[in-house]
Amino acid sequence: MTDVATTEMTPSSDGRVPLVEMRNISVAFGGVHAVHDVTVDLYAGEVVGLVGGNGAGKSTLVHTLSGAHPADSGEIRIDGHPVQIHTPRDARGLGIEVIYQRLALADNLDAADNLFLGRELRTRTGALDDSAMASATARVMRRLNPRFKNLKIPVRSLSGGQRQSVAIARAVHFNARILIMDEPTAALGPAETAQVRELVTQLKAEGIGILLISHDIHDVFDLSDRISVMLQSRLVDTVNKGDVTMDEVLAMIIAGKKPGEVSKEDIAKLHGEAPGTLTP
Fold first, then answer.
1. SS3 110
2. Of residues 150 and 227, more confidently modeled
């Protein structure tokens, strides 16, 4: 079970309380620190891009929030209150959902069957309530993506952007307040990527907070309000997207240098090292 204790909230300078706070989180595997003393937060209606090279620790960090792997030390707060997240069920109970890169959809089922997979609605007699599930799916899809019309076909026949719509609709229908999106535009074409970006804009407008993991720096800059950069298990810094350039973020990712520490020589060197770390 998830235990929530009342404690003093930690408001920002403008009086807002973070939707999520991950404070001083550390995770080790066999004595090797995957995440070391990392603190990040997320506000309602905000996208925080979580970036770093392979092995930086970003996936392990969000696994602690999603209940896939508990932290060894540190604290997670939701709405200013400390919580214990030991399992994915604990996370879902707190309104935390994950949209994995592979989406975890059943390809042979349609949108409604995927939306309610494992959480099916039933009639008073115990039969599957297909009509209620179809109606609920149509409502949430109209809300998120009014152009989505393919409610009755197997999701294997949908485009990548439409499949993302189904996965996001499933999370939102079950009252997600916090979404972890893992490489949401990977392997998508320009039109499908645009669909996903529209979905993210809609989710922000509804007050949902999004942690975005991406290797595409264009996604990070297009979608994020703030960017948290990790390097070798530690947090380099969290910056406002509007206050930094792509080159400065690359310097954080590759060299661990904060924006004020980067010289022109550093930038020139980074352009030789950047390929393979983030998509330039």
1. coil
2. 227
Dig out the tokens for 268 from the structure. Answer: 């020139």
At 117-151, the pLDDT tens digits run: 888 999 999 999 999 999 999 998 888 888 888 88
Q: Report how far residue 38's alpha carbon sits from residue 61's, in angstroms, rounded to the nearest whole number.
A: 8
The model's pTM is 0.84
Q: Which residue from 50, 76, 18, 26 is spatially nearest to 211, judged by alpha carbons?
A: 50
Residue pair 83/4 in contact (Cβ under 8 Å)? The answer is yes
Strand-pair partners of 182: 213
The answer to whether 259 touches 244, Cβ cutoff 8 Å, is yes
Q: What are the Cα distances from residue 89, in Å, to 1, 67, 101, 256? A: 8, 7, 20, 35
Residue partners of 169: CB distance under 8 A and separation at least 6: 111, 115, 137, 140, 141, 144, 145
- Structure-token match 């499908």, residue found: 192
User: How confident is the prediction for the chain on average, in pLDDT?
Assistant: 86
Cα(83)–Cα(20) distance, integer angstroms = 10
Q: What's the pLDDT tens digit per position in 59-111?
A: 999 999 999 999 999 999 999 999 999 999 999 999 999 887 777 789 999 99
d(CA 137, CA 87): 27
